[in-house]
């Protein structure tokens, strides 16, 4: 920007100084304030302009993953129209980033080779971890200076060895892809929709790498990935990985307008999760079970590619009798199927969903049932 008059130059300097320096009053005293430097989007390595987010081969957390505090607003005023969507995404990204960071800390390159995986596996995981650090920074920068940028919590993931770790990675990546198809429907600004699509594409590359190199499977997932319209419901299910009470108290609710739906999965006697398989519905959390009104017809709604298929379910004698349903045999065995229980055909609104969603991995299909056995056994 060319600044002509000295008075204007002075005004601009004052304005910039105001934007950069956090009003101390907005930062609670129990924070060091170090994270506040990140309120300036030009601080530290910039995604797309730094190789840190590609080729950093250290085991310590890369920037900005190494700075865990929330970043407090630096300006007073109303939030940006899409701030809450980016806040949801940033909180979710902390979880994904930490998943890769924990894998890098828990394993060595040799652990993956011994498990029969390529000798490039560990490096690829580092590269993905670095991409995820770039996502953290991008999301921080997309939240406007009038809103808080959520900090890191503590996370616990159910893995103990490399194969289980890579299985969970595959599920997390494909869940991110499905989640982003719903999230991209929420921003008001077109630029933000484009930015979220660009992030979804990166998650797809991560997934394709795992399919090819780790599972030696067909890398393609059919003509369309799965659209699940209620992104917050997929996010809510990731709360299971957050250590209760470990998030900074100032973080916004995660996800925004949390529904706390009963978690859904296939019963432990399930032998297959491919289309045409008969499964019983299991509600994982004994303290959060669904309520079924005897006069309402409920549906298991299965989303795959751009369609959904609703199957009426008999809930009248539950929990005395299990609820059984057949996964629609019309679907191809590709990508994922996202299932939920709804009180209306097609689950037209998020309020119509009363349990789930469950992300059912179809590719590699054998992995899906192995994961289920791991959970119940
Ligand atoms: C985080 O990483 C950045 C960039 O590598 C570094 O300058 C900064 O000192 C680190 N901060 C902490 C707290 O480790
Ligand atoms: C990694 O594996 C490839 C192909 O299997 C092999 O050609 C290469 O020498 C290996 N590299 C190392 C460092 O072991």
TrEMBL record:
Listed Pfam families: Ferritin_2
The keyword Signal appears for this protein: yes
Keyword set, alphabetical order: Signal
Domain of life: Eukaryota
Signal peptide: 1-21
UniProt-recorded name of the protein: Podospora anserina S mat+ genomic DNA chromosome 3, supercontig 2
Organism: Podospora anserina (strain S / ATCC MYA-4624 / DSM 980 / FGSC 10383) (Pleurage anserina)
């Amino acid at each position: 920007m060319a600044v002509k008059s000295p008075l204007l130059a002075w005004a601009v300097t004052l304005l910039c100084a105001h934007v950069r320096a956090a009003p101390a009053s907005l930062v609670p005293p129990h924070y060091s304030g170090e994270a506040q430097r990140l309120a300036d989007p030009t601080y530290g390595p910039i995604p797309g302009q730094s190789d840190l987010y590609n080729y950093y081969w250290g085991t310590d957390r890369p920037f900005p993953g190494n700075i865990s505090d929330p970043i407090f607003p630096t300006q007073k005023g109303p939030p940006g129209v899409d701030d809450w969507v980016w806040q949801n995404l940033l909180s979710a990204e902390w979880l994904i980033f930490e998943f890769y960071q924990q894998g890098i800390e828990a394993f060595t390159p040799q652990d993956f080779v011994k498990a029969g995986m390529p000798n490039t596996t560990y490096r690829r995981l580092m590269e993905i971890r670095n991409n995820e650090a770039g996502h953290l920074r991008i999301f921080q920068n997309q939240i406007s200076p009038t809103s808080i940028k959520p900090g890191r919590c503590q996370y616990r993931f159910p893995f103990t060895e490399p194969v289980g770790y890579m299985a969970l990675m595959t599920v997390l990546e494909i869940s991110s892809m499905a989640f982003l198809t719903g999230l991209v429907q929420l921003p008001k600004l077109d630029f933000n929709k484009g930015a979220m699509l660009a992030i979804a594409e990166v998650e797809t590359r991560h997934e394709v790498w795992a399919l090819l190199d780790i599972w030696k499977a067909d890398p393609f997932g059919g003509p369309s990935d799965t659209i699940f319209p209620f992104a917050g419901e997929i996010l809510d299910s990731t709360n299971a990985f957050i250590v209760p009470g470990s998030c900074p108290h100032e973080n916004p609710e995660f996800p925004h307008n949390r529904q706390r739906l009963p978690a859904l999965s296939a019963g432990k006697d399930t032998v297959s999760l491919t289309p045409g398989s008969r499964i019983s519905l299991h509600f994982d959390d004994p303290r959060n079970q669904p309520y079924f009104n005897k006069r309402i017809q409920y549906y298991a709604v299965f989303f795959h590619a751009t369609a959904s298929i609703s199957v009426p379910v008999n809930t009248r004698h539950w929990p005395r009798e299990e609820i059984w349903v057949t996964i629609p045999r019309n679907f191809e065995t590709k990508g994922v199927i996202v299932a939920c229980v709804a009180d209306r055909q097609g689950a037209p609104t998020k309020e119509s969903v009363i349990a789930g969603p469950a992300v059912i991995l179809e590719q590699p299909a054998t992995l899906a049932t192995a994961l289920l056995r791991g959970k119940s056994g």
